[in-house]
């Protein structure tokens, strides 16, 4: 179990295990939350991202995603947690406290607005980190310059309102604990080819590359 007092050792352990040649030890998880929103969206996204990272970053994750609840102690077993959906999100006080402890102890969450999540997730993350505000990361940030280079920053994957994609972060004591993709639909691009007929293989590859950057950054920052 990940504990704040052992953050340095645990983070090092995550990195060693994720990139090791031994049998898979760690998993990537999708966040299950309350409020009625479709937390289960993008059903094929994470298995495809995991396979892409294992092939291209030489990570060693289990091939299937896990499901973890916000308030569960099991969240401390995952170095990378993914959250998506279109609708309402509600964190109880206990869930907000648990998520904060996970993130401040070395965890990382990627929140991916699947269109309609923004107005719900912002106040809930404010419950988690009342002292922090989301800041947009510039195109030259390291998160866009891992194994794959994105000189223009976060790529646009799925069109909704003809708005530019934005990547926001919550930064706690100099470390990104939460990365939030808005007007991008990154997870849509990770899904099986053909799930969204308008998304080409080129777009899908771009999304997977950006996802791999997130995983690499989360494990090594």
UniProtKB/TrEMBL annotation:
Residues 1-20 form the signal peptide. The keyword Signal applies. The keyword Ribonucleoprotein does not apply. It comes from the Bacteria. Keywords: Signal. InterPro entries: DUF4159. Residues 27-219 form the DUF4159 domain. This is DUF4159 domain-containing protein.
């Amino acid at each position: 179990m990940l504990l704040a007092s052992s953050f340095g050792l645990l983070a090092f352990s995550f990195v060693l295990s994720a990139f090791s040649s031994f049998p898979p030890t760690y998993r990537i998880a999708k966040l299950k939350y309350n409020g009625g929103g479709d937390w289960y969206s993008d059903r094929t996204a994470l298995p495809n991202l995991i396979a892409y990272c294992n092939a291209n970053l030489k990570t060693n994750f289990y091939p299937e995603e896990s499901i973890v609840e916000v308030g569960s102690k099991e969240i401390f077993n995952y170095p990378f947690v993914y959250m998506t959906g279109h609708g309402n999100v509600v964190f109880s006080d206990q869930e907000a406290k648990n998520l904060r402890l996970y993130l401040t102890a070395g965890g990382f969450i990627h929140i991916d607005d699947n269109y309609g999540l923004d107005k719900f997730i912002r106040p809930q993350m404010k419950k988690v980190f009342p002292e922090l505000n989301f800041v947009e990361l510039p195109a030259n940030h390291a998160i866009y310059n891992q194994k794959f280079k994105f000189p223009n920053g976060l790529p646009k994957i799925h069109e909704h309102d003809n708005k530019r994609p934005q990547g926001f972060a919550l930064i706690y004591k100099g470390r990104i604990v939460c990365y939030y993709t808005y007007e991008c639909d990154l997870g849509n691009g990770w899904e099986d080819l053909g799930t969204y007929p308008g998304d080409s293989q080129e777009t899908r590859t771009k999304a997977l590359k950006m996802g791999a950057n997130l995983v690499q950054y989360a494990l090594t920052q």
